Amino acid sequence: MDAPTPPCPQDAEALRRRCAERALSTLTTASSSHAALLENPGLRDRIARVALASDFAIDTLRRQPALLEHLAFDDPPPMPEPVLDPQQPTAWPAQLRLYRTAESTRLIWRDVLGLDDVDATLAGTTRLAETCLRLALDALEHEFAQRHGVIRAADGSVQRLVVFALGKLGGGELNFSSDVDLVYAYPRDGQSDGRRTLAAEDYFARLGQQLARLLDEPTADGFCHRVDLRLRPFGNAGRVAWSFAAMDQYFQREGRDWERYAWLKAHAVAGDTDAGQAWLETLRPFVYRRYLDYTALDGLRTMKAAIVAEMQRRDMADDLKRGPGGIREIEFLVQSLQLIRGGREPALRERRLLPALQALMEAGQVATADGQALARCYRFLRRLENRVQMLRDAQTHAVPQDPDDRLRLALALGYDGWPALERDLAACRAEVSAEFDALLVPRRGQSAPDALGGYWRALPAAGQPQVLAQAGFLDADGADAALRDFARGNGVRALSDSARARLDRVVPALLSAAARSAQPDAALKRLLGLLQAILRRASYLALLDEQPSALARLVDVLARSALLAERIAAYPLLLDELLDTRVAGPLPDTDALQAACASAVHAVHDDPETALRALNEVRLALSFRIALAALDRRQSAVDGARQLAALADAVVVQVLDMAAAEVQAAHGALPGGRFAVIGYGSLGGRELSFGSDLDLVFLYDADGAAVSDGARPLEPGRWYARLAQKMVALLGAVTSAGRLYETDMRLRPDGGKSLLVSTLASYGDYQMQRAWTWEHQALVRARAVAGDAALCADFEQVRAQTLARPRDRQALADDVSRMRQRMRAELDRGDAARFDLKQGAGGLVDLEFLVQYGVLAQAAEHPALLQPRDTPAIVTALAATGWLAPEDAAALGDAHASLVEAGLGCTLDRRPRLLAEDAAVAAARAAIARAVQGHGLDFEPPQAPA
Fold first, then answer.
1. Residue 582 scores a pLDDT above 60
2. How close are the terminal C-alpha atoms of the chain, in Å?
3. pLDDT band for position 945 (cuts 50, 70, 90)
4. Alpha helices in 735-838 (DSSP H)
5. What are the residue boundaries of the structural domains of the chain, listed by start?
6. Is the CATH number of domain 78-287 3.40.50.1400?
7. For 113, which DSSP code?
8. What is the rounded distance in angstroms from the CA atom of residue 148 to the CA atom of residue 924?
9. What DSSP state is assigned to residue 117?
């Protein structure tokens, strides 16, 4: 087929001149005011440029003589809104239509003359439609109230219609000549209170139908806006207006994937918009699932296939909206990524496309260069689509076939002819298609070797174990038996056809990855446990099916860590972390941990149970991220322990706020009262491990005569006891994401026999008068982690006074030695072959006792020793006082790091912290033993008599 002949310059100039002359002639003869205005050469030039782009604009200027005078300004402002007189309803259709055509012409004028970019034009078209909807509904509501009264619910409250806009109107990016996708709803059922009573459903259905007719029906003045109500529940077969309760039931039972895409853009634009926006918040879980949701791609594939079929059937290759590389593909791409991740990342819950695309780039889900290219193509296509529609105000998305129309389109957009515009359009569509296709490609790229695929599909009846042996599994018979049991299990047999198809793609890929891992048999065992846990969770099978990178990362993690395998199987939401771009990046600092926990709670502050679950999910995700960094050796075990403690701090802060809110709700506030949470042990020492419990002590300070101001008042002791009990209960409450932390309160004054909370005064008195030496040792690592800042500072003062007391060195050494000997005798689980990292001779507790002894012995003379709480920092501080020689301090620092690293390895692989001694552990034990002996301490338990 020959290439089209490019227009010659004479053809283009002739077309410009012909359009301009026709427009100027039409307007000059239309009215004397037009003729007078058009004596201005500048205005004549602007008319000529507009005439080339839009016959509709010239026709509107002919019909509305006053409009040209308005547009003659250098920067013409919006047209004044019409006032719909309640006494003249027959005039409303003309008023709305004349306003719409005038304001639309102003938008064309500003676009063609370069006063607005495409973003401003889309926003202006959206505002125009919203204004017409609002004016029309307000007028009709007043008319309905005169005839039928208003709808009142059972409690007497007035109910109003809510008009939801979907599609591009809902997204704030309506194209020039588009229909408006509307859904009608109302908050609650009831009846009208007028003389002619109507039930709410009938009342609002009639009101909605009249609204559609007022906007949509063609008259001598054209139409205002075409209204499409087919996106309501059950489409044309469904009722016209729905109560919020009925809508809730529909989406819970009938909601389909395409509706998630549609309602992602929903916005309340007329009527009771406050009630509408509030209800949309309740719909959010339907649109955005709580976890990464790759099932959204199934809906995308289905919709895309339907569009392709329609396009082929109707020869729509030139369709700018639905054709290949068109506007719809950009929309689908962005919305799919929003639906996949929006449940976890609130910043992606954006109904406008371009801001959503920007949020995806900022979140790292779309590469910046790709995102900028998509935004550029989107603006190009939307501007071209607008110009096609502006030509004659036609609801079309297809490039015109008429050569003159094509040339007009190109010239008005600044091209020298249609071929140049066509080249840019083809390049843009190719770029969009490449990005869109890439979204749907991943699952085709993860096919496993045919042998493993054939083996899996043959199970449980057939299949040869040697296939597994050849793939790399050491215990092929055991692996084969486990896979057969899995394949014949009820979970697999109960899968739907689509889920089974996913499983048949996923399992061979997992087997292939497991066979290549460091521990194939262990990886397979852990994988089967995980698959059993997620068989009924379509979103997680979809994640593994769609994302080969997540699948490969999963197998790698499971092969190397039994602990993380258990956690993923118990809480599949952690699979999401394997795709989080932040996983391989810098870990969050203390402020970021605090912000993440606070955000989780505050997002659902009005629902304590949901807030607790959300906090637990954040804790799980962050601790998992810390564990991955340790597993990958991207940070040291000591840094990981410090981060786990900072995460626990952040959780405790939020739990304290939640507990205080519940106690205040029940008993009122306690004037002048103060409360603080003190962390002891590994929490206080910022050396927390995975799965560690929290050693906590609760302090308060209040006027003993005070009483809380609630309906059930309490005195301070009982008020703060309730607060502490509530905190312990919240920390230990089991949610779908597990429990936050186990807690241990035995380090409080007088231990388990005492009250759960202590006044600051009684705590200080106990520490100074009755506490044992080992309790002062524990106090060395204690710190305030949450609560009233002034009370936390007062605790620090009590701690400093206690630890800085002058002590008899020999008596102190004897006390420390005896306690360690006793602990060693009772708790050391090592033997001749294995060393107990924590309790064994030269282990971590020996080091802790050594530095605690050093602090208690030296603090009176060296107050700087009171500041550090973690072992490495205390070692450094003791070296600064001269109590430790520099070489000994360095050796102890290395010893601590080595033992913590070895302990972390055991924890991640779910092994007891008992291991055969290697060179690093032997060096660590020797350094600690030398330092212990060098300071006159004896931690060896006395030998039992033969």
1. no
2. 106
3. low
4. 760-769, 773-780, 789-803, 809-827
5. 78-287, 296-427, 444-579, 590-803, 809-934
6. no
7. T
8. 88
9. -
